[in-house]
Automatic annotation (TrEMBL):
Signal peptide: none
Locations listed in the record: Membrane
GO CC terms in record: membrane
Gene Ontology MF annotations: iron ion binding; oxidoreductase activity
PANTHER family, sorted: STEROL DESATURASE
Organism of provenance: Malassezia yamatoensis
A Gene Ontology BP annotation from the UniProt entry: lipid biosynthetic process
Keyword Zinc recorded: no
Pfam families: FA_hydroxylase
InterPro entries: Fatty_acid_hydroxylase, Sterol_Desaturase_Related
Keyword list, A-Z: Membrane, Transmembrane, Transmembrane helix
Location (main, coarse): membrane
Domain named Fatty acid hydroxylase: residues: 175-315
UniProt lineage: Eukaryota, Fungi, Dikarya, Basidiomycota, Ustilaginomycotina
This protein's name: Fatty acid hydroxylase domain-containing protein
């Protein structure tokens, strides 16, 4: 039986993955089939922190995801124009779910390739891994995110008679929606740290000090429910957008949430708020990594998609390895 300590993410907690296939549980087999776990430092020598860090452009991330989001929208547009038929909500919903699963899995593999090439932030310490006793929880939380968020957006916005339409203002729309969603998340997140009775709903997520992408959903159910359902609903009520715009937003949002937990040693910004970079309020992987590494009840860097609200409300911390002067602007990832 797993102990309380066994249930917490920690270095080498995923040694169970080396067992025989017949000895793994169904959830462990599912995780292995997804091929999302990082290699252990017992099996792979990661680069150690040394010198300046490379940088990733928001444009690169945008172009990587753009075909993934545009293909289903284009296919629906062609189908409706060519046949005059509409797309049933169930088909649209399944499509959104599959696109998100594909995007998140692909991005997870991308993050793994980056950390193997460039190493981890605070790389002298091994990254936390997924304990064997939490694979069931991981799958449940992943399914709730993969099925729940698309369902919310479908119920709020989908009109089967509406031909796919995007505005020339799409980049600005995505930025504004993300900043508003981050405002909701910022205050909810900060409240769980500063209000004692709310801390119990967030404490589990902070048992990982050096997270990996797949530990994004390692949290208590109330926190997950708020993140998955409440945040997008409140944001939509303030700033409603059409289905196709929010389809794109969701894919970018979910994949880049993973980036905040990947720990790659690089200047790696969030693409949805890259327009804030001239004002120094963009978010990079290290910002949320420091929130986990050094934060507990008292913390900082509460935003997940930008540093705008942390900057305005005085809860932002200084970066360590990805300060502008420590970025090698001649080495692009």
């Amino acid at each position: 039986m797993a102990t309380k300590h066994d249930a917490r993410p920690r270095p080498f907690a995923d040694d169970w993955k080396h067992r025989k296939w017949s000895e793994l549980s169904l959830s462990q087999r599912a995780v292995m089939k997804m091929d999302i776990l990082n290699r252990s430092s017992k099996d792979y020598t990661y680069p150690k922190p040394k010198g300046k860090v490379p940088y990733m452009t928001a444009w690169n991330q945008c172009m990587f995801l753009l075909p993934i989001v545009m293909l289903p929208l284009s296919a629906r547009w062609v189908f409706m124009q060519a046949t005059g038929w509409t797309v049933h909500p169930v088909i649209a919903y399944v499509t959104m779910v599959l696109v998100n699963v594909f995007a998140m899995t692909t991005y997870s593999h991308r993050h793994r390739a980056y950390v193997e090439k460039y190493g981890f932030l605070d790389g002298d310490v091994d990254r936390d891994a997924m304990p064997e006793s939490t694979t069931d929880k991981f799958l449940k939380e992943m399914m709730m995110a993969m099925l729940g968020r698309p369902l919310v957006l479908m119920l709020l916005t989908y009109d089967r008679t509406e031909v796919p339409t995007l505005s020339w203002w799409l980049p600005l729309q995505l930025t504004v929606f993300t900043i508003l969603a981050d405002f909701v998340y910022y205050w909810a997140h900060r409240a769980t740290h500063e209000i004692p009775w709310l801390w119990k709903f967030h404490r589990l997520h902070h048992t990982t000090k050096h997270p990996s992408s797949y530990l994004l959903g390692f949290a208590d159910e109330p926190q997950e429910i708020f993140d998955i359902f409440v945040t997008p609903i409140v944001t939509y009520l303030v700033y409603p957008l059409n289905y196709d715009t929010l389809f794109i937003w969701l894919v970018y949002f979910m994949t880049l949430e993973m980036g905040g937990h990947c720990g790659v040693r690089a200047y790696y910004p969030g693409v949805l708020t890259s327009l804030l970079q001239p004002f120094g309020s963009e978010i990079v992987v290290e910002d949320h990594d420091l929130h986990h590494r050094n934060g507990w009840r008292d913390s900082y860097n509460y935003g997940k998609q930008s540093m705008l609200w942390d900057t305005l409300f005085g809860t932002r911390s200084d970066r360590i390895e990805t300060r502008y002067e420590n970025v090698d602007w001649n080495t692009r990832m």
